[in-house]
Amino acid sequence: MDGLQQQYIVSPNPYTPKPNAKILSDEELDNVMDEYVKAAMLMKEAGFDAIDIRACHGYLISELLSSFTRENSKYGGSFENRTRFLLETIDRVNNEVKIPLGIRYNACDMLPYPYGWGMSKDGSMTPDFTEPLRLAELLLQRGV
Fold first, then answer.
1. Per-residue DSSP letters for the chain?
2. pLDDT tens for residues 58-101?
3. Which entry of 59, 75, 105, 115 is annotated as an active-site residue?
């Protein structure tokens, strides 16, 4: 690759062009989830009282929340699929590590649909907090 570092993304997005990008497969994302759980265990062993999972500002989970155009994937398209990685990661940390969790996620991305989480489906720059609030309820149910 001529010394260029490979960039990994979860779904193509013309608003954030990434030269030399590679879209992560579902299997690769499953492996990343394993790493989240391992990191949580290491943090617990190191004496941390809680963990903060970042799902904001373009981090991986933020990208998954807005992966409307990710086709043929358990992590794209529907609300259930787009939130699956975050919720399954939380469930695994809760069950396998048993350490309190906090989450940071964007209420909206300020990118038009189909690229922005928490945005109106009409393609405008109007926020629609329906899905972010729905996710908040699911997080609360999990003790986050």
1. -TTPPPEEESS--TTS--TTEEEPPHHHHHHHHHHHHHHHHHHHHTT-S-EEEEE-TT-HHHHHHT-TT--S-TTSSSHHHHHHHHHHHHHHIIIII---EEEEE-S--SS-TTS-TTB-TTSSS-B--HHHHHHHHHHHHTT-
2. 899 999 999 999 989 999 999 999 999 999 999 999 999 999 99
3. 59
pLDDT at 2 over 50: no
Annotation marks residue 59 as catalytic: yes
- pTM assigned to the model: 0.87
d(CA 93, CA 107): 23
